[in-house]
Amino acid sequence: MSEYKIILKTISIISLLGLIFAVSLSITFEKSNPLIEQNKIEFKTKLLNEILDGLDYDNDLINSFISVKPNELLKNKIETKAFLAKKNNILQAVLIESIAPDGYSGDITILTAINSNDEIIGSRIIDHRETPGLGDYIDQKKSTWIFNFNGMSLSNRADPDWRVKKDQGTFDYKAGATITPRAVINSVKNTLLFYKENKELFND
Q1: Which domain holds residue 36?
Q2: By the 8 A CB rule, do 127 and 47 touch?
Q3: Is the same domain home to 47 and 74?
């Protein structure tokens, strides 16, 4: 009987400790969650401003957006946000997220800023799994390749220009890694096409 009581007591103590741990974890999460969310907002705001490259706007950019449903051009499988930069309530630029599903190692997530003249202010790679030292040169942390899109538009670049030089286009590429830039180029071009076809969404 005494052995049974010992086992019961041990189980009770373990259960109590588990409860205390769960409550402590919950309290810690509740306290840290606002900080985590704030850090996410600060990171995204910094990224958006980096892409806008000094563009003059006066609205709360992080809270000025429209929802973009899954679209064939953008290849977004879930609803995403397109951020709107405005000055005196006049649209100055739109930042649109797209997916290049045909990267060498899978999806490549890209954010592109387009100004009121339909030109690209800048593009940035948000997420990718391309091969380190080979296909990852698309990442702005690795090289300046992504800056080639700056100033490009559908009107100031002919269709053949939107290719790597190996395909008679204008974009440099790294030997042995042409799949990656082809995917990014196509995705950015399609982002411009999406913007052109849906301008009314951003000017309401």
Answers
A1: 1-52
A2: no
A3: no
Q: Which residues pair with 156 in a beta bridge?
A: none
Q: Are 62 and 48 in contact (CB under 8 A)?
A: yes
One domain, residues 88 and 9? no
CB 155 within 8 A of CB 193: no
Whether 59 and 26 share a structural domain: no
pLDDT, tens digit, for every residue of 102-150? 999 999 999 999 999 999 999 999 999 999 999 999 999 999 999 999 9
Q: Is 78 left (phi over 0), alpha (psi -120 to 50) or beta?
A: beta
Instruction: Locate 13 and state its tokens.
Output: 């103590």
Q: Are residues 92 and 187 in the same domain?
A: yes
Chosen domain end from 35, 52, 69: 52
Entry pTM: 0.80
Claim to verify: residue 71 and residue 113 sit in the same structural domain:
yes
